[in-house]
Protein backbone atom coordinates (compact mmCIF):
# COMPACT_ATOMS: atom_id res chain seq x y z
CA UNK A 1 0.00 0.00 0.00
CA UNK A 2 3.03 2.22 -0.45
CA UNK A 3 1.28 4.31 -3.09
CA UNK A 4 -0.71 5.90 -0.24
CA UNK A 5 2.33 7.81 1.11
CA UNK A 6 2.24 11.60 0.90
CA UNK A 7 4.18 13.48 -1.76
CA UNK A 8 5.99 15.33 1.00
CA UNK A 9 7.40 12.21 2.67
CA UNK A 10 8.39 10.67 -0.67
CA UNK A 11 10.24 13.78 -1.76
CA UNK A 12 12.26 14.26 1.46
CA UNK A 13 15.61 12.54 1.97
CA UNK A 14 16.75 10.73 5.14
CA UNK A 15 19.19 12.81 7.17
CA UNK A 16 22.67 11.71 6.11
CA UNK A 17 24.08 12.70 9.53
CA UNK A 18 21.58 10.69 11.53
CA UNK A 19 22.30 7.67 9.32
CA UNK A 20 26.06 8.06 9.87
CA UNK A 21 25.50 8.38 13.63
CA UNK A 22 24.24 4.78 13.61
CA UNK A 23 27.56 3.61 12.11
CA UNK A 24 29.69 5.74 14.40
CA UNK A 25 28.01 4.40 17.53
CA UNK A 26 30.64 1.64 17.19
CA UNK A 27 33.26 2.60 19.85
CA UNK A 28 36.13 1.52 17.57
CA UNK A 29 35.39 4.37 15.21
CA UNK A 30 36.86 7.82 15.73
CA UNK A 31 33.93 9.98 14.73
CA UNK A 32 34.29 13.52 13.43
CA UNK A 33 30.98 13.06 11.60
CA UNK A 34 28.24 14.09 14.02
CA UNK A 35 27.80 17.22 16.06
CA UNK A 36 27.66 15.80 19.55
CA UNK A 37 28.47 18.01 22.53
CA UNK A 38 31.22 16.52 24.69
CA UNK A 39 29.57 14.24 27.28
CA UNK A 40 32.14 15.21 29.92
CA UNK A 41 30.80 18.76 29.72
CA UNK A 42 27.23 17.76 30.52
CA UNK A 43 26.65 18.47 34.23
CA UNK A 44 24.75 15.25 34.93
CA UNK A 45 25.20 15.62 38.70
CA UNK A 46 23.74 19.13 38.69
CA UNK A 47 20.86 17.95 36.51
CA UNK A 48 20.26 15.00 38.83
CA UNK A 49 20.00 17.35 41.81
CA UNK A 50 17.65 19.69 39.97
CA UNK A 51 15.46 16.76 38.88
CA UNK A 52 15.30 15.36 42.43
CA UNK A 53 14.36 18.78 43.83
CA UNK A 54 11.60 19.34 41.25
CA UNK A 55 10.10 15.91 41.84
CA UNK A 56 10.29 16.24 45.61
CA UNK A 57 8.98 19.81 45.84
CA UNK A 58 6.35 19.84 43.11
CA UNK A 59 6.29 16.41 41.47
CA UNK A 60 2.59 16.09 40.75
CA UNK A 61 2.44 19.44 38.94
CA UNK A 62 5.70 18.86 37.08
CA UNK A 63 4.34 15.55 35.78
CA UNK A 64 1.02 17.08 34.65
CA UNK A 65 0.00 18.58 31.27
CA UNK A 66 1.02 22.20 30.92
CA UNK A 67 0.63 25.29 28.70
CA UNK A 68 1.65 25.35 25.02
CA UNK A 69 3.87 28.43 25.45
CA UNK A 70 6.00 26.77 28.11
CA UNK A 71 7.02 27.25 31.75
CA UNK A 72 6.75 31.02 32.52
CA UNK A 73 9.95 31.36 34.63
CA UNK A 74 11.96 29.65 31.89
CA UNK A 75 10.49 31.96 29.22
CA UNK A 76 11.26 34.95 31.45
CA UNK A 77 14.85 33.73 31.97
CA UNK A 78 15.35 33.56 28.17
CA UNK A 79 13.74 36.98 27.55
CA UNK A 80 15.90 38.55 30.24
CA UNK A 81 19.04 37.06 28.71
CA UNK A 82 18.12 38.61 25.36
CA UNK A 83 17.58 41.98 27.04
CA UNK A 84 20.88 41.83 28.92
CA UNK A 85 23.11 40.25 26.25
CA UNK A 86 21.76 41.98 23.15
CA UNK A 87 19.55 44.85 24.33
CA UNK A 88 16.50 43.32 22.60
CA UNK A 89 13.11 44.58 23.71
CA UNK A 90 11.38 41.25 24.20
CA UNK A 91 9.46 39.81 27.10
CA UNK A 92 8.34 36.34 28.10
CA UNK A 93 5.28 36.57 25.80
CA UNK A 94 7.64 36.57 22.81
CA UNK A 95 9.18 33.24 23.86
CA UNK A 96 7.79 29.75 23.26
CA UNK A 97 9.59 26.63 24.52
CA UNK A 98 10.15 23.98 21.85
CA UNK A 99 11.35 20.39 21.62
CA UNK A 100 14.92 21.38 20.74
CA UNK A 101 15.50 24.29 18.37
CA UNK A 102 15.00 21.83 15.50
CA UNK A 103 11.27 21.99 16.21
CA UNK A 104 11.31 25.76 15.58
CA UNK A 105 12.21 25.05 11.95
CA UNK A 106 9.21 22.76 11.61
CA UNK A 107 6.85 25.23 13.31
CA UNK A 108 8.03 28.20 11.27
CA UNK A 109 7.76 26.04 8.14
CA UNK A 110 4.15 25.26 9.07
CA UNK A 111 3.42 28.95 9.57
CA UNK A 112 4.89 30.19 6.27
CA UNK A 113 5.27 27.44 3.69
CA UNK A 114 2.88 26.00 1.14
CA UNK A 115 3.95 23.54 -1.55
CA UNK A 116 6.45 25.13 -3.94
CA UNK A 117 7.17 28.21 -1.79
CA UNK A 118 10.75 29.44 -1.84
CA UNK A 119 13.10 29.85 1.12
CA UNK A 120 16.38 31.76 0.87
CA UNK A 121 19.11 29.63 2.44
CA UNK A 122 22.82 29.99 2.96
CA UNK A 123 24.94 27.97 0.55
CA UNK A 124 26.13 25.77 2.19
CA UNK A 125 23.32 25.65 4.75
CA UNK A 126 22.30 23.56 7.75
CA UNK A 127 21.08 20.24 6.38
CA UNK A 128 18.59 19.75 9.23
CA UNK A 129 16.83 22.93 8.10
CA UNK A 130 16.85 21.86 4.46
CA UNK A 131 15.26 18.55 5.52
CA UNK A 132 12.72 20.32 7.71
CA UNK A 133 11.56 22.80 5.03
CA UNK A 134 11.47 19.98 2.47
CA UNK A 135 8.61 18.47 4.46
CA UNK A 136 6.57 21.44 3.20
CA UNK A 137 7.79 20.85 -0.37
CA UNK A 138 9.74 24.10 -0.30
CA UNK A 139 12.08 25.20 -3.05
CA UNK A 140 15.43 26.81 -2.26
CA UNK A 141 17.15 30.01 -3.26
CA UNK A 142 20.74 29.46 -2.10
CA UNK A 143 22.91 32.51 -1.42
CA UNK A 144 26.65 31.91 -1.13
CA UNK A 145 28.62 33.00 1.92
CA UNK A 146 31.85 34.96 2.01
CA UNK A 147 33.92 35.45 5.17
CA UNK A 148 31.56 38.19 6.42
CA UNK A 149 28.25 36.43 5.78
CA UNK A 150 25.73 36.09 2.92
CA UNK A 151 26.80 37.69 -0.38
CA UNK A 152 24.55 40.74 -0.50
CA UNK A 153 24.86 41.35 -4.25
CA UNK A 154 23.64 37.84 -4.85
CA UNK A 155 20.90 38.26 -2.24
CA UNK A 156 19.71 41.48 -3.89
CA UNK A 157 19.52 39.66 -7.21
CA UNK A 158 17.50 36.88 -5.62
CA UNK A 159 15.15 39.32 -3.89
CA UNK A 160 14.56 41.26 -7.09
CA UNK A 161 13.86 38.25 -9.27
CA UNK A 162 12.06 35.81 -6.96
CA UNK A 163 9.48 35.81 -4.27
CA UNK A 164 10.67 34.09 -1.10
CA UNK A 165 8.60 33.48 2.03
CA UNK A 166 11.57 34.01 4.38
CA UNK A 167 15.33 33.71 4.67
CA UNK A 168 16.94 31.20 7.02
CA UNK A 169 20.46 31.76 8.35
CA UNK A 170 22.92 31.08 11.17
CA UNK A 171 24.95 34.24 11.89
CA UNK A 172 27.16 32.75 14.65
CA UNK A 173 29.58 29.94 13.74
CA UNK A 174 27.41 28.85 10.86
CA UNK A 175 26.83 25.12 10.44
CA UNK A 176 28.66 23.84 8.41
CA UNK A 177 31.06 26.61 7.27
CA UNK A 178 31.91 28.09 10.70
CA UNK A 179 31.46 31.63 9.35
CA UNK A 180 30.36 34.35 11.79
CA UNK A 181 28.67 37.31 10.11
CA UNK A 182 30.40 40.67 10.64
CA UNK A 183 28.51 43.47 12.36
CA UNK A 184 28.25 45.49 9.15
CA UNK A 185 26.91 42.52 7.22
CA UNK A 186 24.29 41.90 9.92
CA UNK A 187 23.11 45.48 9.64
CA UNK A 188 23.11 45.52 5.82
CA UNK A 189 21.39 42.15 5.60
CA UNK A 190 18.69 43.33 8.01
CA UNK A 191 18.03 46.48 6.00
CA UNK A 192 17.93 44.57 2.71
CA UNK A 193 15.44 42.05 4.11
CA UNK A 194 13.30 44.75 5.74
CA UNK A 195 13.19 46.71 2.47
CA UNK A 196 11.74 43.64 0.72
CA UNK A 197 9.59 42.66 3.72
CA UNK A 198 11.22 39.25 3.99
CA UNK A 199 11.29 37.74 7.53
CA UNK A 200 14.63 36.40 8.76
CA UNK A 201 14.58 33.09 10.59
CA UNK A 202 17.74 33.44 12.66
CA UNK A 203 19.08 30.18 14.07
CA UNK A 204 21.37 30.95 16.97
CA UNK A 205 22.27 27.42 18.04
CA UNK A 206 25.92 28.48 18.50
CA UNK A 207 25.52 32.03 19.85
CA UNK A 208 26.81 31.00 23.28
CA UNK A 209 29.60 28.83 21.85
CA UNK A 210 31.92 31.71 20.98
CA UNK A 211 35.50 31.19 22.09
CA UNK A 212 36.07 34.90 22.66
CA UNK A 213 32.94 35.06 24.85
CA UNK A 214 31.60 38.02 22.86
CA UNK A 215 27.79 38.32 22.55
CA UNK A 216 27.22 39.55 18.98
CA UNK A 217 23.98 41.38 18.31
CA UNK A 218 21.64 39.22 16.25
CA UNK A 219 20.50 40.31 12.79
CA UNK A 220 17.03 40.49 14.37
CA UNK A 221 18.26 43.34 16.56
CA UNK A 222 18.48 45.49 13.41
CA UNK A 223 15.04 44.49 12.10
CA UNK A 224 12.81 46.68 14.21
CA UNK A 225 11.27 43.79 16.12
CA UNK A 226 10.53 41.77 12.95
CA UNK A 227 13.12 38.98 13.29
CA UNK A 228 12.35 35.42 14.37
CA UNK A 229 15.12 33.99 16.55
CA UNK A 230 15.65 30.42 17.63
CA UNK A 231 17.84 29.21 20.47
CA UNK A 232 18.89 25.96 22.04
CA UNK A 233 19.95 24.53 25.40
CA UNK A 234 21.45 21.50 23.63
CA UNK A 235 25.00 22.79 23.45
CA UNK A 236 25.12 24.50 26.84
CA UNK A 237 23.02 22.17 29.00
CA UNK A 238 21.98 18.84 27.45
CA UNK A 239 20.90 17.81 23.93
CA UNK A 240 18.97 14.81 25.24
CA UNK A 241 16.61 17.02 27.27
CA UNK A 242 15.48 18.51 23.91
CA UNK A 243 15.00 22.07 25.15
CA UNK A 244 14.94 24.95 22.68
CA UNK A 245 12.90 28.08 22.05
CA UNK A 246 11.63 30.50 19.48
CA UNK A 247 11.50 34.25 20.02
CA UNK A 248 9.06 36.01 17.70
CA UNK A 249 7.04 39.22 17.41
CA UNK A 250 3.50 39.03 18.80
CA UNK A 251 1.69 38.52 15.48
CA UNK A 252 4.02 35.71 14.33
CA UNK A 253 3.91 34.13 17.79
CA UNK A 254 0.14 33.82 17.54
CA UNK A 255 0.58 31.64 14.43
CA UNK A 256 3.49 29.66 15.89
CA UNK A 257 1.35 28.89 18.92
CA UNK A 258 -1.33 27.30 16.71
CA UNK A 259 1.32 25.21 14.93
CA UNK A 260 2.76 24.10 18.28
CA UNK A 261 -0.66 23.15 19.69
CA UNK A 262 -1.37 21.04 16.63
CA UNK A 263 2.08 19.42 16.72
CA UNK A 264 2.46 18.27 20.31
CA UNK A 265 0.35 20.39 22.73
CA UNK A 266 3.48 21.48 24.59
CA UNK A 267 7.14 20.58 25.15
CA UNK A 268 8.12 18.10 27.84
CA UNK A 269 7.09 19.90 31.01
CA UNK A 270 9.25 17.89 33.39
CA UNK A 271 12.34 18.77 31.29
CA UNK A 272 11.34 22.44 31.40
CA UNK A 273 10.98 22.36 35.17
CA UNK A 274 14.32 20.60 35.64
CA UNK A 275 16.04 23.10 33.35
CA UNK A 276 14.45 26.07 35.16
CA UNK A 277 15.55 24.66 38.52
CA UNK A 278 19.05 24.02 37.19
CA UNK A 279 19.34 27.63 35.97
CA UNK A 280 18.16 28.86 39.36
CA UNK A 281 20.71 26.83 41.29
CA UNK A 282 23.79 26.89 39.06
CA UNK A 283 26.06 29.45 37.45
CA UNK A 284 25.32 28.76 33.78
CA UNK A 285 27.73 31.49 32.62
CA UNK A 286 30.63 29.76 34.39
CA UNK A 287 29.51 26.46 32.85
CA UNK A 288 29.37 27.99 29.35
CA UNK A 289 32.81 29.58 29.83
CA UNK A 290 34.15 26.11 30.74
CA UNK A 291 32.65 24.58 27.59
CA UNK A 292 34.15 27.31 25.41
CA UNK A 293 37.57 26.84 26.99
CA UNK A 294 37.48 23.09 26.27
CA UNK A 295 36.17 23.46 22.71
CA UNK A 296 38.72 26.12 21.87
CA UNK A 297 41.49 23.69 22.96
CA UNK A 298 40.04 20.91 20.85
CA UNK A 299 39.72 23.18 17.81
CA UNK A 300 43.36 24.19 18.24
CA UNK A 301 44.52 20.57 18.53
CA UNK A 302 42.66 19.72 15.34
CA UNK A 303 43.86 22.68 13.31
CA UNK A 304 47.48 22.34 14.41
CA UNK A 305 47.42 18.65 13.48
CA UNK A 306 46.00 19.64 10.06
CA UNK A 307 48.79 22.23 9.72
CA UNK A 308 51.29 19.42 10.23
CA UNK A 309 49.69 16.66 8.14
CA UNK A 310 47.66 18.21 5.32
CA UNK A 311 49.17 19.33 2.02
CA UNK A 312 49.00 23.05 1.17
CA UNK A 313 46.13 22.64 -1.26
CA UNK A 314 43.70 21.43 1.42
CA UNK A 315 41.98 24.51 2.82
CA UNK A 316 40.34 24.59 6.23
CA UNK A 317 38.79 27.07 8.63
CA UNK A 318 40.24 28.11 12.00
CA UNK A 319 37.15 27.98 14.23
CA UNK A 320 36.30 30.92 16.47
CA UNK A 321 33.31 29.10 17.96
CA UNK A 322 30.91 26.22 17.36
CA UNK A 323 31.96 22.62 16.94
CA UNK A 324 33.26 22.18 13.38
CA UNK A 325 36.17 22.68 11.00
CA UNK A 326 35.15 23.04 7.34
CA UNK A 327 37.52 21.64 4.71
CA UNK A 328 37.86 22.26 1.00
CA UNK A 329 39.71 19.43 -0.72
CA UNK A 330 42.04 19.79 -3.69
CA UNK A 331 40.69 19.53 -7.23
CA UNK A 332 39.96 15.93 -8.20
CA UNK A 333 39.41 14.51 -4.69
CA UNK A 334 35.78 13.88 -3.89
CA UNK A 335 34.56 14.06 -0.30
CA UNK A 336 32.45 10.91 -0.87
CA UNK A 337 35.56 8.95 -1.83
CA UNK A 338 37.48 10.33 1.15
CA UNK A 339 34.58 9.44 3.46
CA UNK A 340 34.43 5.81 2.21
CA UNK A 341 38.19 5.31 2.43
CA UNK A 342 38.51 6.91 5.89
CA UNK A 343 35.62 4.85 7.24
CA UNK A 344 37.43 1.66 6.18
CA UNK A 345 40.20 2.83 8.51
CA UNK A 346 37.69 3.54 11.30
CA UNK A 347 37.54 7.31 10.98
CA UNK A 348 34.23 9.00 10.13
CA UNK A 349 34.07 12.42 8.49
CA UNK A 350 31.05 14.14 6.95
CA UNK A 351 30.98 14.90 3.22
CA UNK A 352 29.71 18.44 2.64
CA UNK A 353 27.31 17.63 -0.23
CA UNK A 354 24.07 17.35 1.84
CA UNK A 355 24.60 20.95 3.00
CA UNK A 356 24.05 22.26 -0.53
CA UNK A 357 20.32 22.61 -1.19
CA UNK A 358 20.79 22.61 -4.96
CA UNK A 359 23.63 20.09 -5.16
CA UNK A 360 27.37 20.68 -5.44
CA UNK A 361 29.96 20.92 -2.68
CA UNK A 362 31.69 17.68 -3.77
CA UNK A 363 35.04 18.85 -2.50
CA UNK A 364 33.86 19.95 0.95
CA UNK A 365 33.96 18.11 4.27
CA UNK A 366 32.76 18.94 7.79
CA UNK A 367 34.73 17.61 10.77
CA UNK A 368 33.60 17.84 14.37
CA UNK A 369 36.08 18.46 17.19
CA UNK A 370 33.85 18.78 20.27
CA UNK A 371 33.37 15.10 20.94
CA UNK A 372 36.93 13.73 20.63
CA UNK A 373 39.93 13.87 22.94
CA UNK A 374 43.44 14.93 21.93
CA UNK A 375 44.66 11.43 21.05
CA UNK A 376 41.59 10.73 18.90
CA UNK A 377 41.88 14.07 17.14
CA UNK A 378 45.55 13.58 16.34
CA UNK A 379 45.23 9.91 15.31
CA UNK A 380 42.07 10.59 13.28
CA UNK A 381 43.47 13.55 11.36
CA UNK A 382 46.64 11.60 10.60
CA UNK A 383 44.53 8.82 9.08
CA UNK A 384 42.49 11.31 7.03
CA UNK A 385 45.76 12.81 5.71
CA UNK A 386 47.09 9.32 4.87
CA UNK A 387 43.91 8.32 3.07
CA UNK A 388 43.89 11.58 1.12
CA UNK A 389 47.45 10.92 0.03
CA UNK A 390 46.53 7.37 -1.07
CA UNK A 391 43.57 8.63 -3.11
CA UNK A 392 45.71 11.21 -4.90
CA UNK A 393 48.38 8.68 -5.72
CA UNK A 394 46.05 5.92 -6.84
N1 LIG B 1 20.33 24.48 14.26
C1 LIG B 1 21.61 24.18 14.02
C2 LIG B 1 22.43 25.13 13.21
C3 LIG B 1 22.16 23.00 14.51
O1 LIG B 1 23.43 22.72 14.24
C4 LIG B 1 21.35 22.14 15.27
C5 LIG B 1 21.85 20.82 15.81
N2 LIG B 1 23.00 20.34 15.40
C6 LIG B 1 20.03 22.50 15.50
C7 LIG B 1 19.54 23.68 14.98
C8 LIG B 1 19.09 21.64 16.27
O2 LIG B 1 19.50 21.53 17.61
P1 LIG B 1 18.53 21.20 18.82
O3 LIG B 1 17.24 20.72 18.26
O4 LIG B 1 19.24 20.16 19.60
O5 LIG B 1 18.37 22.49 19.56
UniProtKB/TrEMBL annotation:
Pfam families assigned to the protein according to its UniProt record, in alphabetical order: Aminotran_1_2
GO BP term, pick one: alpha-amino acid metabolic process
Residue stretches making up the Aminotransferase class I/classII large domain: 47-382
Domain of life: Archaea
GO terms of molecular function: pyridoxal phosphate binding; transaminase activity
InterPro entries on file: Aminotransferase_I/II_large, Class-I_PLP-dep_aminotransf, PyrdxlP-dep_Trfase, PyrdxlP-dep_Trfase_major, PyrdxlP-dep_Trfase_small
Cofactor field: pyridoxal 5'-phosphate
Keywords of this entry: Aminotransferase, Pyridoxal phosphate, Transferase
Self-association state and partner proteins as the record states: Homodimer.
Family membership: Belongs to the class-I pyridoxal-phosphate-dependent aminotransferase family.
UniProt-recorded name of the protein: PLP-dependent aminotransferase family protein
Annotated source species: Methanogenium organophilum
Amino acid sequence: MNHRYSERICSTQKSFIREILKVTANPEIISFAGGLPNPNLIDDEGIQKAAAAVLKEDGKTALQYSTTEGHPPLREWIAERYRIRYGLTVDADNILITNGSQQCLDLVGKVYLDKGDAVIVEDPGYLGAIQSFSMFQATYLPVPLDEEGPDLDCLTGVLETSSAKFMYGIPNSQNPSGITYSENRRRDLASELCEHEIPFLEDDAYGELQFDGVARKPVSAYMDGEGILTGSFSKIFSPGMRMGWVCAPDAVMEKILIAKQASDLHSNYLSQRILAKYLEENDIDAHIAGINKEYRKRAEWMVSKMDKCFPDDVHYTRPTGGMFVWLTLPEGVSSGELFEAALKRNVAILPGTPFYADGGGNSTVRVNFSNSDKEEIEAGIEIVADVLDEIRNS
